[in-house]
Structure formats: structure tokens, C-alpha cells
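Re: that chain you flagged

S.,

Sorry for the slow reply, it's been a week of failed gels. I finally had a moment to sit down with the sequence you sent. For the record, here it is as I used it:
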Amino acid sequence: MTKIIFFRSNGQIYGFRESGHAGFAERGDDIVCAAISAMTMLMINTIEDGYGARVSYDINEDDTVVLFKSKSALSEFEEDEKKVFAISNLLLSYHQTLESMVEDNYEYLEVSIQDIDYDESGF
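Prediction finished late last night. Pasting the C-alpha cells below so you have them in one place:
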């Protein structure tokens, strides 16, 4: 099962931790894992390269763990309010998309939100 925990501070999602293999099918044939992986990389690349935002991330393929967070999603760290709005809403959309996937794939995917300050979320 893939477990994704979104990090939220003051109502704003600023990052996530993904772990595990969905188990829908064997590695290489798992469409649930493929969808999650594609969306994850879209989020990271769009936020980092498209918006030029400050990000921290670690991708550990051996343990199947992805950690991502962006200070630019929080107004306490980012002065450009348009950037904060865009990034935090992009992450919110990612969360909502994954929640929709859970409806049909609850055996393979778990999504939750953890309220935690940026500096306490680790890495």
C-alpha cells in the first residue's frame, strides 16, 4: 500500500511524505503506482522549476519513500503572495486528486493530512 501524508500549517499544505508500493500489480505493471509517481514528479518539477520556488525533497527509490516540502507554499516564508497562492493550491489539488483515487483504490492507497509546523516536519 502507498501511504501519503500531506503536511499542513495554518491551513496551507506545504509538503508531503509518500511511502510504499501500491501493490495493485507487479512492479513495472502497477498503474496505481505509475499514476502516483507521475503526479509526484509533476508537483516537484512544477513547483521547483515552473515557479522557481524554494523546495526540499528526497527521493529514496530503494525504500520507496519521497519527502517533499516547499517554504514558498507558506506566507510566513514567502513574500510573493501570488506564488504562495499558486503553490499551496497546486498541492491542495494534488491532495484532492489522490483522495479521489482512494475511492476506487482504497486497498492500495491511503491519504491523510498532518497539521505540523514547517520546521517540525523533518529533513
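What I noticed first: The chain has two helices and five strands.

Talk soon,
D.
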